[in-house]
Fold this protein.
Amino acid sequence: GAGVSQSPSNKVTEKGKDVELRCDPISGHTALYWYRQSLGQGLEFLIYFQGNSAPDKSGLPSDRFSAERTGGSVSTLTIQRTQQEDSAVYLCASSLVPTSGQETQYFGPGTRLLVL
Amino acid sequence: AQSVTQLDSHVSVSEGTPVLLRCNYSSSYSPSLFWYVQHPNKGLQLLLKYTSAATLVKGINGFEAEFKKSETSFHLTKPSAHMSDAAEYFCVVSGGSNYKLTFGKGTLLTVNP
C-alpha cells in the first residue's frame, strides 16, 4: 500500500517568506507526527496530532511555526517569516494509534527546506 | 526522561565482514527501542523494534539487535555487510505511553569493496 507522502520534496525560499509543507499519512493512521532533521540538532520532535487535534505542540521552536490537520488525514506545517536557521529536512510520520510507545511510526521521504 | 547515545558517529567496514553499531539508552519507563535506517535523500525506514518480548530481535535485510537491560544497550549487528547497507542508522527510544521518539545522533555506515 501507499506510504507516507510529503510535498514538496525540495523548497527554496527567501528569508522572510512563508512556506507550507504538506504531509499525507498512511490511510487509516490516526496519529501523525512532524519532526525536523538539521545538521546541528539531529532529529527533533515538533508536533503530534491525534485525529485533527494537536495535544502536544511542545516541540515547535517558535510561534512562527504552526500546523493543522484536516479530516483526520492531510497535515500542513506552516512556517511564517522564515529564517535561515529554519533550513532543515522536515519529516512527517504516521502510526495506527498513538497511545503506546510501542507503535511503529512510518516516515515519509521529507521536505528539504533551504532558506536563503 | 529518555535519551539515546550512539557510541560511534562513523563506522567503516569491508564488504562481507560483520557490522556492529552500538547504542546505549536511558529511560524512566520500560523502553521500546527501534533502529531506523536512512539512505541518502530518502526517508527513515524501520529495521527492527524491541517491545518487551524476545530480547533478540530480528529485522529486515539480515540485521538483528539484542536488548540487554543490565547494560542498557541495544546494539545492532549483521554477520556480513553488503554494499547496499551503506547508510545512516538511528537508534531510537520511546517509553511508557510516550509516543515521542527520541533519536540518537546517528551512525554513518560506510561499506568498502
